[in-house]
Specification:
- About 55% of the residues lie in helices and about 10% in strands.
- The protein has helices at about 20-25, 40-45, 50-55, 60-85, 100-105, 120-130, 130-155, 165-170, 175-185, 205-220, 230-235, 240-255, and strands at about 10, 30-35, 90, 110-115, 160-165.
- It is globular, with a radius of gyration of 19 Å.
Length: about 260
């Protein structure tokens, strides 16, 4: 049974882990609005961080500034909800994963969805999307750092506030995975989420074009295609494999990404 809730929802995790796919699915729910990445909060955090000492000269403490940031952000999301005729907002900005303490200060009742993908596939996706140097950075530090940071944060929260799901389950057992996610969020199941392509989203055409190209290259015509699962294991060269093993080998094993 759905609990009428307006708690904020944050999708967190490493980039190239399926965060955009998950955003589109949630945005297809009749109560949930999840637009493009805002990145607002990383830009605003210095107000209560690096600039706090200077701004304190105005006589307003940290709590005052947090209230103003919260009001601004909530106001933006409330206007967007009204525009779209929805009741609850979600935010997908992977970089917020490294700013969760600040996000938590602003929204202490938020729910977090951490999507995790095999680090080898993430590295392969970074490389294919942005070039080999990007793949090196992902293997050397990015994937492991993001996943560990999110999991350590989640371990401190109550079970009703942090939910982990795997990309592999999202694309392989989509309905089961999303049913469990909506139950965590306290929202009713709606089959519309499985047909997110039929719903109007505020988004650039980039994602649709990129995924269509992926499906064509793999010969996979499914809306939610599975062909990229295991891509890293098949395609990473020895250098990228070695870098990932050094930075995240133990994490890969802990998460069951072996073989």
């Amino acid at each position: 049974m759905r609990a009428d809730s307006d708690r904020p929802i944050f999708i967190i995790g490493c980039a190239r882990s399926g965060t955009t796919l998950l955003r589109m699915i949630l945005d297809s729910h009749p109560r949930i609005s999840c637009g493009e990445e805002t990145k607002f909060l990383t830009d605003l955090e210095p107000i209560v961080g690096a600039h706090q000492r200077l701004l304190a000269s105005y006589g307003f403490d940290r709590a005052w500034w947090l209230d103003r940031i919260r009001e601004m952000y909530n106001g933006f999301q409330a206007a967007y909800l009204e525009k779209r005729g929805k009741a609850r907002w979600a935010e997908k900005t992977p970089s917020y994963t490294l700013h969760l303490a600040f996000v938590e200060e602003l929204f202490p009742d938020a729910q977090y969805i951490h999507i995790i993908r095999d680090g080898r596939d993430v590295v392969a996706s970074f490389r294919d999307r942005w070039g080999y140097r990007s793949g090196v950075r992902a293997a050397n530090s990015i994937w492991a750092h993001y996943v560990r940071t999110a999991r350590e944060f989640g371990a401190k929260l109550q079970p009703d506030r942090y939910h982990e799901l795997r990309y592999e389950a999202l694309v392989g057992e989509t309905e089961t995975t999303i049913r469990a996610l909506l139950a965590f969020l306290g929202e009713d199941w709606d089959p519309q989420v499985l047909n997110y392509h039929e719903v109007e989203h505020d988004t650039t055409e980039r994602y649709a074009a990129f995924t269509a190209k992926r499906r064509e290259a793999a010969g996979d015509e499914a809306l939610i295609y599975r062909s990229r699962v295991g891509a890293g294991q098949r395609a990473l060269d020895p250098v990228l494999k070695a870098l990932l093993a050094r930075s995240g080998g133990s994490l890969l094993s802990e998460l069951g990404y072996t073989g």
